[in-house]
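The data are quoted verbatim for completeness:
=====
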Amino acid sequence: MKLFDGKPQKNGPAGAERRGSSDGGEGGGPRPSHRLTLDLSRAEQLAAMLAQSRAAKFVEVADLLAGMYIYEWDRLSRFWEDHEEVERLLQQMCNISPQRWHHWIELYDRQRRDGEKEEASPLRGLRKKPEDAEAPGRSTELQNLFKTAEQISPFLDRVDGENVPVLTTECVLLCIARHEHSDLSRKLRDTGLDLEALELAARNPRRSPPR
């Protein structure tokens, strides 16, 4: 599986997606406060689809959590022994039926396995992309989550001559689980999430448990 797109950066994971925070960007605008890995960026796109499916104006933390799990279920499932319990929680939090849930898992797993073929396709540039104006923005809680993840990310990338944190899926998942005043976080921890293994993978990827 191709986890990242592009060439390795000096201080960050290979090919971090050039996706900035909601208060910054490229092309002459303010310097972004972070970048996302390709997989995390795609998980956020799926989260936006979940938000749109219920006509929400904002992507919530629960949407991102479900998007991360659906898109990277084989990568993140190693942090749980009881997969059914966490799946039930996410289906409930995001109002996703079991049938739709497993359909999306199969769909995105197939797309991920075919990712390298898509990147090499001469029709890649012709694929229609959703307009930015139609996509829901990040909720305040989600923006704060990314700001917290910026503080613990072990990866940095150079943007406009300055270091910018690169956020990984494990890093963001850890921040969700560690939120002390969130009901979602409490329920997530109660699913049997292996916080010790997750924190090791988020803070020190070279020593993380095998997948």
